[in-house]
Structures are given as C-alpha cells and as structure tokens.
Amino acid sequence: MRPVLLLIFALWLAGQVPNAELERLYRQDQADREDFDKHLGDQKWFAALPERDAARLARIREMARKGELQCPKDYSRAALILQHGAMPDDFLLAHVLSTAAAIGGESDAKWLSAATLDRYLQKIGQPQIFGTQYSFQDKNPWTMEPYHEDLLTDGWRKLYGVPGLVEQKKQLDEIRRESKENK
To answer: What is the mean pLDDT of residues 53-72?
Structure first.
C-alpha cells in the first residue's frame, strides 16, 4: 500500500474509535436497565434512576452539540441513551443519530432508528408507524395504539429489523398474557 493511502486509512480509523466517555455512559445506562429486577422494591434506587438518566441525557446532548460524537458506534450508543429520555427532542435527536449509525454500518441501529421515530411520534401525539412501542395505563391492557399500521408494509418493517404485523400481534398477546399472570 502506498504511504499516502496508509495515512488516509490511519486517519479514517482514528475517527472510528468510540468516545471513551460515551462508552462509560452507555455502560451505566445499560447497567441501570439490567438491574431493574435486582432492585424491585428498592424505592431509593428507583427514585434516583431519573436523576442518573437526566445527567446522562444532558451530557449526551452536550456531546452532540459540541461534535464529540465521531463514529457510527458513538451515534448508536448516544441514540440508545437518548431513547431513555422524556422530551420529544430526545427522541428526535436519537432518531437522527441512530439513522446516521445505520448508514455508517451499525446494523442494530436500523431497529433503533425505527423505535426512536415511533417514540418521537407518540410523544408529539401522533401514531407510531413501525410498531415498536408497547404501553399500558392504569388497569388497561397493554397496547400498541395509537398505531398507523397501514402506512408501512411488512417489507419496510423487515428492512428496519422490525417484526411484521402478525408477529407484532403475537408479541402483544404474549405481553398481555404475562401481565395477567403476574397480577
């Protein structure tokens, strides 16, 4: 390989190194989600979770504003943390970042791109379009509504790594069944 090509390749690789601080924030975020079962009944732990999330979200927004997210893995990690936000802009930024990650080759980011768009749409009072979001309120059964399930075909869902409508309905039935069993 010519020296110039080696230099270009080395510079390209340098831009592909994930942000170390972001990796730490990502691991913390995921550990909090994996620890739910360990902390059932621990009101203090659950009360502190929104504070931990808020601190991570603020830092991710700052990193995005300052251009500190440099590679597809950074975009994907940041998007997943933002997916745990509360504001429409959290989900919209997560959608942009996860889409950029998918374009950059992060295959798991395709599903995240769909999920962040669905969550954003729901947060602004519009129906989801991919079918990635399940929710319940009070004693009502689990639902995917509001859901504009006719907008996309199962082919589009598959392209984004989202199950088709028949599989989604099976998953919803299973979630409802498990919910009844756990009461």
So the answer is: 95
